[in-house]
Amino acid sequence: MPEVPTTGQLLLLVAATLAFAVGGVVSLARVWWERNDLRVFSKAMMYVGVLLSAIVLIWHSASRGSWIPLEDNFDAFIWLGLLLAIFVQYVQRSKPLGGLEWLVMPIVIVLMIAAGIFGKAKPHEYADGSWEWTHRVSSFGGLFAFFIAGVAGVMYLIKQNQLRAKHPSTGPKLGSLERLEHITYSSVTLGFALLTIGLVTGLVRVLTHSKTNLGIHWYTNPKVLLAFAVWVVYAIVLHAPINPTFRGRKAAILSVFGLFLVLGTLIAVQYVPSGGQH
Amino acid sequence: MHRLLLLGLNHTTAPLEVREKWALSADRQQQAIAAFRERFAGAEAVLLSTCNRVEFYAARAPHGGPTADEMLTFLAEFQQLRADAFRPHLYEKSDRAVVEHLFSVTSSLDSMVLGETQILGQVRGAYELSAKLSGAGKMLNPLFQRAIAVGKQVMSDTALSEGRLSVASVAVDHAKQIFETFADKVLLCIGAGEMAEAVLQNFYSLQPGRVLICNRDGVKAAGLAERFGGLPVPFDTLSEHLVAADIVISSTGSTLPIITQKQFKSLRRQRRGRPIVLIDIAVPRDIEPGVGELDNVYLYNIDDLQQVVSGTLASRRDAIDAAKLIVTKGVEEFLIWHRTREMGPVIDQLFKRSHELASEEVARTIGKLPNISEDEKHHLEDLARRIVNKLLHDPIKTLRESNTSHGLPGGYAHAMQKLFQLKDENDPPAE
């Protein structure tokens, strides 16, 4: 049974958010002061944030008596933020990418804050059946991939500006354009596939479940329209390799635009009435 | 006794259009030194010609030839150029200033790209060529050997050369900011000159998938292609290869752009928007600047690359200061060593001659004193020796300790020889 987060869980979440924030700021400071102690401190703060977030998730799951993830907003937002933070640490361990921490951390922090704000709302009356769970898992998976794509897009644009200014070695040290483009396309491909599954399963749910309150004109619902807009944007980005017009800078701009659209959709989902959500 | 002279121009005094007119190939350098030796017998010469500088080092007797004007006339005649037209771009240095300049050159402190190591090899090459032709002798041999040693010390003891700072390495760094892997990339080199080769050498370390050499002279292209495991391609198929290329190095002697914006725009569709890095190190430029404004095209010319290099100067200030200290110390040590070597024999001769004169006078005096005892004789000889020593003490001390900023000791030594009628070892034997 889903449960509203306790004050203890919220306090722990605040601590995790602060750890991520400090880690991100220190990582940003390394753009100007490349010092090993700063690197170690930033990394330590990230790990603290990951650990605290994981504890919050375990605590919350234990208190609600279910270990299935994404059963409520609090759980879903923290999962999303935690996965992003783990992804950053994984990349930095395997093949470091300068700038990744301080560009991803704001999103992680927003997600943690969103968990605190929207997680207090009455928990989602979780629709039974595998369609709903598939819908949520694939949609959140898609969001995760689009966040990565958006961040890679921002990094691509910064890097390209450095290269155009003929001083690629000055400013933040980001990866090569090719790597950033590769991350963007891989993430968009994954995100697009997951979002497509999310949209299809959502559509099935709308058409087959009487519980949904999107109404007869569900296709005019902002949540549905935003989700479809996101899908279209990423469909265009995916065409970049075969359509040179959308390659490079334009693909990066689109993926950043898509990132904002995704965030808009995520917020819209909280306010727009839909199947069981408030 | 020798004096040093330098006549030269470099990247700070002359644009590339001027420098390339004065530049000499190794064969021409050889011919120039032989011609110089023929015209100025007894003088020494080393001719340094790189893409950034043409410098003519000479050592001559204090009042012998050549003078700086004669050196300029000689070079202008040799190169079949009008000397007056280039005079504003030239610099002349003599004695200490020559030593300081050469030491700075070998230490890469006078290079367009501070810390580049190529110059050391180029100076060594120029010196060895001259030494082989007996162009470098008693004066230039130790000077160049010491300069090369100081250059090596700067490279090994300071961080000046760290960061692989050369135009070629900066170009490679730029490409690495754009591409992650190179095994699947096509590298197209347009031109087969020295600069193209130097840049290609750096890019080759990235192990690109395919190397194409496109040059008007097919033989040169084939030679370069063989060295880098590449493929020579005809110049008239350039557009076709620009479609396949990911990295282009262009360094031709063309006076007009060989890649225009219009031409490149027409290739974009075939290239499917793939990013491309264009390195244009030619002057005049081979690639129209407008090409760099196109999407996914990253164009860097020689100025862009050099600006990046100069931008790193601040972070290497300590290394530059350390290198300058080594150079200053090296110059002082060389001048002291040289002063000692040049002045030693003169001082010896001066002592010897003065004491001989004194002894002669003492002997003459003793001859006029028939009843002189042995003790008195010794007293007289001591007196004469002490007078000579006291008379010579101050001028010799001044000579030995005089500030090296006054330059090489050639002038002093020559003056001493003339004033005291000393014999110069370099003077030709009397007929």
What structural keywords apply?
heterodimer; A: 278 residues; mainly alpha; 8 helices; B: 431 residues; alpha/beta; six-stranded parallel sheet; four-stranded antiparallel sheet
Short structural summary:
The complex is a heterodimer of chains A (278) and B (431). With 278 residues, chain A is mainly α.
Give an overview of the whole structure.
The complex is a heterodimer of chains A (278) and B (431). Chain A starts with 6 loop residues before the first helix and ends in a 7-residue tail after the last helix. With 278 residues, chain A is mostly helical. Helix content of chain A is 72%, strand content 0%. Chain B has 431 residues and is of the alpha/beta class. Chain B is 54% helix and 12% strand. Chain B contains 16 helices and 10 strands. Chain B has helices spanning 16-22, 26-39, 68-79, 83-86, 96-106, 118-132, 140-157, 167-178, 194-204, 218-227, 238-244, 261-271, 302-311, 317-367, 374-401, 410-419; strands at 3-10, 44-49, 53-60, 91-94, 186-190, 210-214, 231-233, 247-250, 276-280, 297-301. In chain B, the strands form 2 sheets. Chain B has a 6-stranded parallel beta sheet with strand order 7-6-5-8-9-10, with helices on both faces. A 4-stranded antiparallel beta sheet of chain B has the order 2-3-1-4, with helices on both faces. In chain B, strand 6 (210-214), helix 10 (218-227) and strand 7 (231-233) form a beta-alpha-beta unit. In chain B, helix 5 crosses helix 7, helix 5 packs antiparallel against helix 14 (317-367) and helix 8 packs across helix 13 (302-311). Chain B is elongated. The two termini of chain B are 21 Å apart.
Q: Fraction of residues of chain A in helices?
A: over 70%
Could you tell me the number of beta strands of chain A? 0
How many strands, what sense, and barrel or not for the largest sheet of chain A? Answer: none
Structural class of chain B, by secondary structure, is: alpha/beta
Number of alpha- plus pi-helical segments of chain A: 8
Broad structural category of chain A: mainly alpha
- Beta-strand share of residues of chain A: under 5%
First CA to last CA of chain B: what distance?
A: 21 Å
Mean pLDDT across residues of chain B: 85
> Percent of residues of chain B in helical segments?
40-55%
Separation of the first and last Cα atoms of chain A: 17 Å
Oligomeric category: heterodimer
Major sheet description of chain B: 6 strands, parallel
Which radius of gyration of chain B do the C-alpha atoms yield? Answer: 30 Å
Q: Give the overall shape of chain B.
A: elongated
Number of helices of chain B: 16
Strand order of the largest sheet of chain B: 7-6-5-8-9-10
Order of helices and strands of chain A: HHHHHHHH
